[in-house]
Each structure stands twice: as C-alpha cells, then as structure tokens.
Amino acid sequence: MPSKNTVTCMVGAAALALSLTACSGGSSTGSSSDGNGTLTLGSVTQVTTFAASGALWANEAPFMQAVYDTLLRETPDAKVEPWLATSWKYNADKTVLTMKLRTGVKFSDGTPFNATAAAKNILRFRDGTSPGKQELQNLRNATAVDDSTLKITLTQPDPTLLTYLAQLAGLQESPANFGKSDEKTRPVGSGPYILDSGQTVIGSKYVFTKNPNYWAKDQQHYAKLVFNVYENATAQVNALMGGQANGLVLFDSNSKAQLKSAGLKLYGMEQNWQGLILFDRNGKMNPALANLKVRQAINYAIDRKAMLKAVVKGDGTVSGQIFGKTNAGYDAALDDVYPYDPNKAKQLLKEAGYGSGLTLSMPQFGFVGTTVFDLTKQYLGAVGITVKYTQVPNNNAISDVLTPKYAAAWFPLQQDPTPWQVANFEIAPAAVWNPFHVKNAKVDGYLKTIQTGDDAAATQAAKDLNKYVVDQAWFDPWFRMEGFFAADSKTSVVLQSDNAFPYLWNIKPKA
Fold it and tell me: pTM value?
C-alpha cells in the first residue's frame, strides 16, 4: 500500500505452525493444522479503516483478508483464480464481464452474499474514499442479472480488472453494515475471521477469532489471529526474539544476522523500488520541479550504488526505473541513464536558472532509520538543493504524502507485475501515487495502446512509456530493494509476488 500495494501504496508487512507458540503478554497456546491455536503477526501500520469502500492494501491486506472475501483470488505468482466468483467471461470487446458467483455464502451477520451484494460493493468502492478506487475508473455499472450472476460494464477495456477484483475492488462487505456509525472499526464480511472488538485496541492490537460459519474451513489455519503494530525496527526485533510475534515484514535488513542466529527464517524477494518521487512535475507547489533540468539534476546528484550499500547494506539491485525486471516494460538500458555526476547536476541547475540554489521540502518518516534522509540531504545539498524535512508520524505517512502536502518525497513503492498496473499506480493522471494528477498527452497515448493494443503493440508502448518517464525524470529511483519477511521455525510462509505482506492464506502451520 506503499503495495498496493504500497506501504500503499507503502512499505511493505505472517506466519503459522504445526505446534505454534504465540506469545501475548507471555502466554503460550498450542496450534495445529485443524485450526487450533493463535497466530501473532507484526504490522508496520495500523488499520486506516475497516470499511471496504475506504480500505487500503499492501501492509493492510492481511487485515482485510481476515474479515473479507474477494470476488477473485491471486496465487503467489499473481495469477487470478476463482473465489466468490467461480467463473467469468468477457464479451468480444472486453467491456462487459459476466461472473457466476458462489451460492450458499453468508456474511457474518447472516446477510446472504449474492450478485446484488457484489454489485453494491463494487459501485460503493468506485465511489468511496479509498485511494485505490482508481482501480475502477473504467467502471460504468455493476448489476445483478440474477442471484448468482453479476454483470460488470466498463466504459473501455481494463487489462487488470480481474487482478483488481482479487484485491481492493473485490472486497465484499455485508450491505447491512454500510454506513453504520461503527463501520470503520467493526467490519462485517464473509471472511474466515471476525474482529473481536473486546480484545482489540485500535491502533496497536487487533484480535480476530475464527468465523464458525465460514464456507471454506480449510482456509482457517488458526482459531485466533493477533496483529500487533510495531513502530520501529527495534520493536520488531524484540518481538521476534522474545516470541511475541510469529512473523512480520522487517522495516530494514540490519537485523538479518541476529535473527538468523536466533533460528528465525528470512524470506527475501526484490519487490519494492526506493528513491525519490518528484510529484509536483507541473510546479504547482514548487515551481522548480516543473523544469526538466532540475528533475534531471536531482537524478544525477545522488549516488545510487552508495545508497544501496548504505541504506539496505547492498540487499538489492541498483536501478533507474520503476518497472521491475519481470514487467514487460522493463529495459535494462534505463537503469543507468543518470550515472552519479554532481558536476552535471550543478550545470543543469545553472542552465535551469537555479545556479544559486533552491529549496526542496520533503517528509521524513520514522519507520526507517535516518540514514536515507541524511544522505539525501547531503547529496542534494552538495549540488545546491537545500532539503528541509518535516517529521511525519508513521500513521500519517501515506495520507500526508497523497493529500498532497509535499512536492517530492522518499518512499519505497511496489513493483507491480504488469505495465497497466504500474501506470495506474504511479503514472496515469488518476494514479494513486500521482497526487497532483499530472497529465501528459504523450503518456496518454502510450496508456491507450497498452490498454487496447495487441500484445506486441502493448509491450512496445510499455517500453516507450518507461523510457519517456525516465527521460522526463518523473522519479529518481535508486535501487530495487530485497525485502524480508521473518518468521519463526514453526511457520510456513509463501511470499506474494505483488504484495509486501504475504497473503493470509499462504501462511500455514509447518507440517
């Protein structure tokens, strides 16, 4: 969330066991594959809202997956498979999607799940408050043909709609819960667990108990789930080492050796890219960022290799693009368009009319150490760009950045698997991580071809889009970071290729 994804769209944030010890306040409870025992997970963020129409994904995904089913599901390698929707088909021009729905499913309040409920959820999400509602920007309507048949009509084809229906856009909340005064803190879904409001402390600890009427009981690996929110890396390590958490996404990799020596297993995957996002490309908040040469100067000013080594101890790969290696738009040649060259940066600033310097205000967050912020300030200061930071609490990180309150920001963002997802997450005018809604005719042309062209044309358009964004210096990526999920020896985890936190059903007791 970053993930999506991202944190959203943010930092990345699971575990289980045959004979699991889950500690909360020093107590232990056994666990087995038939759903007994407690699983305690660490989260890097509290829940923004439990209302499905305002929900976030990425690190908040497991909270949503505990209480809500989605219409479709993703495998660990991001392939879409049936879930509440058992089958589906498009019309010839892919503007009408007809889905057959599972029957006999009920929400935890007893309300039946059917096509009418599904249609209401889809429309409500499109019109809701979630930053991810742009996933349904092409939705014209959703209607029930009959109780088990849902028809989704689009204004134009959407190559990633099925994936979206396996994530935020597919979350199913009981319509009877819509608009209730406690909707944001008391979710009602058809998922495997139910939030225990009595044991939950909003913002720090979330407790879920097994839904006794869940239709897919083989997905309920534990009788109880506990999510504890950890504010920093030290708290995470202490929780893992002390047995208060069975698994979590690490803030950073500095504790790898310590955790491994204590018997913890680290699951690693290059998923997020880190660097600066130059949001204000039209110069509404900071006129300097409207100048291409200023944005390029920022790219030349920072030593990517040194950043990789200093910030994440070399756990990753130097990169100059936001498209990941498995994405059709990736081009290896774009990873070194802006080699470290402070003299070049100074010259570009002079040519842009900022030879005497400029000021760039950015947020600073506590969920990572100060190294990344200190070095950014140092590198940019060396070429004449004065960085002024505002300390932002972790819980406000995404909302402040996306409001938007800053012209630029450091952030780790997910690398989505398809060009269309990347574009709609970070590039397109309505993208979550384009909070200034910067619009560009050339980009619109590439997006249209990615959306409607044949495979060859769409792939070429994705590469062209990637090159254009790099040449225009919309971002200043430094590296693709290898993130780590740490779990105890009794927990089996399968990572999710397009999300920082493993999906809940892929965390199982170790046989």
Answer: 0.76
